[in-house]
Amino acid sequence: MQKNKLGHHLLSLARYYSRVAPPPPAYADPVIRVSNNVAYLGSPKQGPKPRQLLSLPPFPGHHLPGKNSATGRVTAISWLKYYFDEISDSAIQSHFNKGLVKIESSNPNAADSFIERDGQMKSLRKIKHNEVMEVGARVWVPVSIAETRVSRRFDCIPSGTLHPNADEIDYLRRLVKYKDYAILVLNKPPKLPVKGSLPVHNSMDALAAAALSYDYDEGPKLVHRLDRESSGLLLMGRTKESISHLHWLFNDINPAKSSCKAWNDACDAKFQRYWALVIGTPKENEGLIRSPLSKILLDDGKTERVILAQNVGLEPSQEAVTEYRVLGPMINGCSWVELRPLTSRKHQLRVHCAEALGTPIVGDYKYGWFVHRQWKQMPRVDIEPRTGKPYKLRRPEGLDVQKGSVLSKVPLVHLHCRELVLPNIAKFLPLLSNNAETLSPGLSGKPDLLRFVASMPKHMKISWNLMSSYLV
To answer: Where is the Pseudouridine synthase RsuA/RluA-like domain (predicted)?
Structure first.
C-alpha cells in the first residue's frame, strides 16, 4: 500500500510540473545546414506556406445562361465553369478531383480547414463536383485556377505571363527557325516541357498559343513531341489542314498513298536526325536497332517506365526501329553518336541507347543510373586509334565547364534533334485539299522538301568543343 501511495504521489508531482512548465520560446534554436560541402549556422527552414484561396461571389440562385433549367438545379462544377468560362473544363475537373474546391460550412465539426473573412473565422469543407448549389453559398478555390501566369520553374523561359510583353514575345520568336502559312519550326531549349498539364504552365504548346499566333486567330498546334530534357527541332502546324496532314505524316502506320507521285516521294524522304553523347561506345560503328518497347508501372503505381519488350506474348509492345552511327572515337569515356529514329515511340532513343547498345546518354539518369554511378568523369589520356598516339582532353581557354556539360558533376541530357527533313506542306496542301494529281504552275517552282538544322544548346556546345578534335 505504501509503495502504491508513493507511486501515485510521484505521478501527481510529474503531472503537476508538466502543467506548470514554461512554454517553449517563440524563436527556434539555430540549426546547421550543409550546402556545397560548406556548413552554415542559421535558422530552421520554414514550413510550407498556406495555399492562397480565392472567394467566388455568393451563388445567386437563378438559372445559368445556356444551361438546362428543367431540373432547376445547378451543380458546383457548372457554377465554376460559368464563373471561369476562360478556364478549360479539364483544369476545373482536376481541381475537384484533388479536393481543392471548398465551400463555407455552417457545421464546424464537418470542416477540414478555416479561413478568415470580414474579421471572422469561416469553416470550409471539400465539395464534390456534382453537389447542388444553394442560394448564398460561397465557394473557395485556389488562386491557381484563375491565374494565367507562366511559372518561372525553368531558367530558359524569361516569361512571367501567358500574355507576354514585347521583349518576351521577341525571345520566343527567336526560337522560330522557319514560318510559312502552314507550319512553324522551332529550336526547343532543354528542360522545357512540350505538352502542358495542370501543374505545368510554361509548356511549349501554351507559350506558342500565347505568343506565336502572329496574324492567326489561334496559335500553332503540336504534331510531334520531344522529351522535356532534350532539345532541338520541333514542328507545329498552323492550320487544321496542315495539322491533319502532319499527324498523318508522323504516324508510323500511314494509310494509302496519294495520287501525286511528288508528294509520295517527299513523304518517303522525311526523316529526323539526332546527335547524342553516350557513355562508352557501341561495339559496331553503325547499325540498325530493332527492339520493341513496352511500358510498365513501378511499385508506386504512378511512375511509368519504358523497357525493351521480352517478346513472350504476355505484355503489349510496340515496334521500335532506330538507325545509329558513331561519329568519332571514344574520348574521356564518351562518344558522339548520330541517331535516326524510323518509328516514333516514347523514350525510344534513350532506351535503345541505354539497353540495346549498353551506352546510355550522358545526363539520362532515368535509364542509365547504374552506368552513371560507375562513370569516372576525370580527364585521362586516351589513345587515338588511327595514329596510335596518346592525346588528352583539351580545355579551350575561358570555357566554363560547370554548366551541365560532360565535365559537370550533374550533366544535363545530351540529346538534340539536329536535323529535320519533311515535305513542303505549303506547296502540296492545295493539291491535297482538291485531290488533284498535278501542281499549279505557281507552286511547281517551289522545293518539294524542306531541310532544317538547329544549333545545339549551350551545355552540348561546351561538350562538343571539349571533344570535337577527332570527330569524323
So the answer is: 183-354
